[in-house]
Design brief:
Elements (H helix, E strand, L loop, with lengths): L1 E4 L4 H13 L4 E4 L5 H8 L6 E3 L5 E2 L2 H9 L12 H11 L3 H4 L14 H11 L6 H6 L1 H18 L12 H13 L9 H14 L8
Parallel strand pairs: 1-2
Antiparallel strand pairs: 1-3, 3-4
Helix pairs in contact: 1-3, 1-9, 4-8, 4-9
């Protein structure tokens, strides 16, 4: 199987982490941000991630990809899901893009390997984030909004090996968001959140993104 992806994409990381946790090889193909043709050639529109199955069939929707990969052999996402974790993930998603979106194009990521690709990202995001520099200037404000959410998450973590004690979709829900948020230089994770993030990233074998 092959995954068309962006390195910074949290939905892509959902799929990557499940494959890694199961020890399954997943060919990863990073698409440059301005290479819409690579996506439309497969599924008729611009979208990421795209999982290409061994028979050439493309699949969309990250949760469907997670389910398919987890069903290969013995499932590992066998633990419970809790609405509290979903609610915390939603609250994180309401804040973190203001921190991450203006930072992604500053990072040495393969999807931005050319000036054209980086500029394409900035143009695509201009309507939702018209003032990237202004958002970076408000970093302390956004971190202050995020801190109590992370504190609540800290209280919900059962242990560093799994949020709910046994690996579940909640781990696939939260770890990619923490990986994204960790690009912010100066972000401080509460103790249990920090231990969980370090343990899970080590377990998947992936390095955190650079910070800026």
């Amino acid at each position: 199987m092959k995954l068309l992806m962006f390195e910074h994409c949290s939905l892509c990381f959902r799929v990557r982490m499940v494959a890694a946790l199961k020890g399954l090889h997943l060919a990863e193909e990073v698409v440059e941000d301005d290479d819409s043709a690579a996506m439309t050639a497969l599924v008729g529109r611009r979208v990421i991630p795209i999982l290409v199955l061994d028979d050439g069939t493309p699949m969309l929707e990250s949760w469907d990809m997670v389910a398919l990969i987890d069903a290969i052999g013995a499932p590992i996402l066998t633990g419970p899901e809790r609405p509290e974790i979903t609610a915390l993930a939603d609250r994180m998603l309401a804040i973190t893009p203001n921190l991450t979106m203006p930072r992604y194009p500053l990072l040495p990521l393969p999807e931005f390997r050319t000036v054209a690709a980086r500029d394409h990202f900035l143009t695509r995001k201009a309507s939702a984030y018209p003032d990237m520099t202004g958002l970076r200037a408000r970093t302390r404000e956004f971190l202050a909004e995020l801190a109590p959410v992370l504190d609540e998450l800290d209280a919900e973590i059962a242990g560093p090996e799994a949020i709910n004690g046994t690996l579940s979709r909640d781990d696939v829900r939260i770890l990619p968001l923490l990986r994204s948020a960790a690009v912010v230089d100066g972000l401080t994770l509460p103790p249990r959140v920090g231990a969980y993030f370090q343990a899970m990233m080590a377990r998947t074998g992936f390095r955190p993104l650079p910070t800026v």
